[in-house]
């Protein structure tokens, strides 16, 4: 006879504490089988040494060990499609209900709809919860009910709405004794999935009071550790989002809080306008005659454009899986504006390389530099790599770290003249967006 259980499905919430969906799953009479699925629909597109898979796998093992050592439980882990994993799980258990936290990307929405239907056909309830944001979907709207398409008024309304809520936590960690008592649940290894351990290590994050208080002064200087390095942990939910909001509120500097609100803004945009994943929010920008020179794209990817600030950023990305946010804007603008290469090419390369890749923020950021998004920089705003260097890396500490051959014959000449490229860009964009 099968054991009757609840299932909690981990996705972008890889933690046992202050986890909304897990808390609700554990708050019942049936024990909970924790579940994680290495989704073949996603993994099949990745390289065998993808650092994100190593990162997720290591966190999963820490969670498994904690549950095994303290509660005699574990995490049922599958390498399959979500549909196949649930078919396997339903063979072994009589599932009363499945609990999870909501995800807002187009693929996730389609996936959850399929699983909901699969479970409903078996008479199994599917419960999802808000966990990775404070406000989701259309919860921050204009007075007339329309969605904000510019960040600043969205941010102001977000803060106004926030004053009316109770930011409570959900102590799932206090109820883990209600996890299913079996430490031999299905498991997979990296090699089982065709992956190897990545050489890239994810550095620890920093949300000390000192960093948050000085965040506005340090966050644009790539040569120092002036950012929190939170993004990979936030992307996979290794740290509770409410904890971050509380940390941001604990200091007077609101710049860090605004960065978190930017994240919610882009999530809301992608959820309500899923076509922006592949199409310009402003359709006229899809009329741009991109040059899309593959040889120039390769030079950009490898950090061999002859523009030191651009090349340093790309080399940092290739070697570490991370790039300073200021540099993301610089290299993105250079690709779209100087080289006239489609922003979707850059977005796809970032998706391949970034440890903290999050579709909503990445698409939003790329459409921002391309000028095609909701709250975009005007198309005539073209980042000047030289002035960006003077402002944010004047002594070239950051550049020299990543380009030791600078000032030698081994470093290439600029692949395009800034002034000529700027004029070419303006003419191309003006032709595309004219009425």
Automatic annotation (TrEMBL):
This is Deoxyribodipyrimidine photolyase PhrB-like protein. Residues 4-134 form the Photolyase/cryptochrome alpha/beta domain. The chain crosses the membrane at residues 20-38. The record marks 290, 343, 366 as: Electron transfer via tryptophanyl radical. Pfam families: DNA_photolyase (PF00875), FAD_binding_7 (PF03441). PROSITE patterns: DNA_PHOTOLYASES_1_1 (PS00394), PHR_CRY_ALPHA_BETA (PS51645). InterPro entries: Crypto/Photolyase_FAD-like_sf, Crypto/Photolyase_N_sf, Cryptochr/Photolyase_FAD-bd, Cryptochrome/DNA_photolyase_1, DNA_photolyase_1_CS_C, DNA_photolyase_N, Rossmann-like_a/b/a_fold. GO terms for molecular function: deoxyribodipyrimidine photo-lyase activity; DNA binding; FAD binding. It comes from the Bacteria. The keyword Signal does not apply. FAD binds at residues 215, 227-231, 256, 259-266. SUPFAM superfamilies: Cryptochrome/photolyase FAD-binding domain, Cryptochrome/photolyase, N-terminal domain. Keywords: Chromophore, FAD, Flavoprotein, Membrane, Transmembrane, Transmembrane helix. Binds 1 FAD per subunit. Its cofactor is (6R)-5,10-methylene-5,6,7,8-tetrahydrofolate; FAD.
């Amino acid at each position: 006879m099968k054991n009757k259980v609840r299932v909690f499905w981990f996705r972008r919430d890889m933690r046992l504490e202050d986890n909304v969906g897990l808390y609700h799953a554990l708050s019942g009479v049936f024990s909970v089988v924790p579940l994680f699925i290495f989704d073949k629909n996603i993994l099949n597109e990745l390289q065998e040494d993808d650092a994100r898979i190593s990162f997720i796998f290591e966190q999963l093992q820490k969670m498994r060990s904690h549950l095994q050592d303290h509660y005699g439980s574990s995490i049922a882990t599958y390498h399959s499609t979500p549909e196949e994993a649930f078919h396997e799980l339903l063979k072994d258990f009589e599932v009363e209900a499945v609990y999870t936290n909501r995800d807002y990307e187009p693929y996730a929405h389609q996936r959850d709809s399929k699983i909901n239907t699969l479970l409903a056909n078996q008479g199994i309830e599917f419960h999802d919860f808000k966990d990775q944001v404070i406000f989701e979907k259309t919860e921050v709207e204009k007075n007339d009910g329309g969605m904000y398409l510019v960040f600043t008024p969205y941010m102001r309304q977000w803060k106004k709405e926030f004053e009316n809520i109770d930011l409570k936590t959900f102590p799932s960690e206090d109820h883990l004794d209600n996890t299913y008592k079996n430490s031999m649940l299905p498991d997979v290894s990296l090699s089982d999935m065709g992956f190897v351990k990545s050489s890239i290590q994810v550095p620890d994050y920093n949300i000390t009071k000192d960093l948050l208080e000085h965040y506005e002064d340090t966050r644009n200087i790539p040569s120092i550790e002036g950012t929190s390095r939170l993004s990979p942990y936030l992307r996979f939910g290794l740290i509770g989002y409410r904890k971050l909001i509380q940390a941001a509120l604990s200091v007077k500097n609101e710049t860090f809080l605004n960065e978190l609100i930017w994240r919610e803004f882009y999530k809301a945009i992608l959820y309500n306008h899923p076509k922006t994943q592949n199409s310009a929010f402003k359709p006229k920008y899809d009329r741009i005659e991109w040059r899309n020179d593959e040889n120039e794209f390769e030079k950009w990817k490898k950090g061999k454009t002859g523009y030191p600030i651009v090349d340093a950023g790309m080399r940092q990305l290739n070697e570490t899986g991370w790039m300073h946010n200021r540099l993301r804007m610089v290299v993105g603008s250079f690709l779209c504006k100087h080289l006239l290469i489609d922003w979707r090419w850059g977005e796809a390369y970032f998706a391949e390389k970034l440890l903290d890749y999050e579709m909503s923020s990445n698409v939003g950021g790329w459409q921002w530099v391309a000028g095609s998004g909701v709250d975009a920089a005007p198309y005539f705003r073209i980042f000047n790599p030289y002035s960006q260097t003077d402002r944010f890396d004047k002594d070239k500490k950051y550049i020299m770290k990543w380009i030791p051959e600078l000032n030698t014959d081994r470093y290439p000449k600029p692949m395009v003249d800034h002034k000529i490229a700027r004029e070419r860009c303006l003419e191309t964009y003006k032709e595309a967006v004219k009425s």
